[in-house]
Amino acid sequence: MLPKDWKKSRKMYSGKIDEIIYARLEPGEDLLRALWDICEQKDVKTGILLDATGSMQRVKVMRYPHEPVKGARGIDYVDIHGPLEVSAHGIIGMGWVPDKALKPEPVHLRGGATGFGAGGFVGHGDPYFHVHITVSSSSQTVCGHLMEGSPIDEIVYNGRNDLPSHFSVAIAKVSGVILRATVEENAYYHDIVPA
Questions:
Q1: Whole-number Å distance between alpha carbons of 191 and 74
Q2: Which of 32, 69, 107, 158 is least buried, going by the fewest C-beta atoms within 10 A?
Q3: Are strands 76-96 and 177-184 parallel, antiparallel or unpaired?
Q4: φ and ψ at 109, to 5 degrees?
């Protein structure tokens, strides 16, 4: 039996799913940039990447390293070449940089990512994604944070390459709450505020 004081006080707000957006991505499109574009077109400030499923040419992920440094978590950037089957899900918010003087780190420090954080955002108020992606090739399965530089694959079916892609995403647009990927001078965290 749980003790009476087991309930933890935590910051919580309720939101509501307003709509679910389905989109088909085309061969060669960068998955992260396509997600940013869809959210900008559909005015998604906070939401959920319910699913992203299909085949990709290549995927860049950020993950914990196989051989972590003792006493530190460490980060590993992996570039996996395909063809690859992928499945992904995650949270959508907006980048929040209260101190406008802060700028994204130089590209070489982030394994080629754009902007702040794993899913990157370029500036204050821009779309932000925290996507966990699982990638399977013929020889390995890897899970990590989706990074920019991950293009959708071209599928050739019975000798035809003129067919539409089968790579699809489902995004839930949420109202009533705002998720902020907040960057401060020495900190990075998710914050939740009422809309």
A1: 23
A2: 158
A3: parallel
A4: -85, -10
